[in-house]
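Entry 0007
Protein: D-alanine--poly(Phosphoribitol) ligase subunit 2
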Amino acid sequence: MTADIRTRIHEIVAEQAMIDVADVTDASVPADLGVDSMGLVEAIFAIEEAFDIHVPFNANAPDARNFDYSTVGSIVAAVERLVAEQRG
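Output (structure tokens):
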């Protein structure tokens, strides 16, 4: 499932950035890919829908207690955690 989560998140970020998914890595910073704050919000909504989860998200305060979106890899890790918690 982890590979599926990573792949889907890379696809969502690429779609928001309007770039090829091959250009997205775990080390990528969304803003460096061209994802602005509105695009990030839209990506979070798409992630919630794709994985049927609720993402605790505050665009003004990224941290571990919230939802770390500093890199694509941190988004993947946070979604993996949320999916695992949901499954119990």
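Curator remark: The helical segments are 2-17, 37-51, 72-87. The CA atoms of residues 28 and 83 lie 22 Å apart.
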